[in-house]
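ARCHIVE CARD
Drawer: 12
Card no.: 0347
Subject: one protein chain, sequence and derived structure
Cross-reference: see card 0346
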Amino acid sequence: MISHETSATEGQVFFREALPLGDIQRPVLEAVVLSIKNVLDEITMGACHVRHVAFPLDEPEYAALASELFGCEVRYGQSWARA
């Protein structure tokens, strides 16, 4: 499920599993959030800057690579997956 919140200065897109994903939760959430971030970057031609993304997951060993791929801060251990 996808929802969003906006204020005068920022917007957030939240992602929640419609069904438990079990073992595939991490790759699915990472792929969805990265895809949405890339779409935002493309359609706004960089005018919509994503400052951070967040995941309700433990920090993986590849956290530095994730930050590089997302091109922003990646926060783990959060209550929602969001961009």
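Annotation on reverse: Residues 2-19+26-82 form one domain. The first strand starts at residue 2 and ends at 6.
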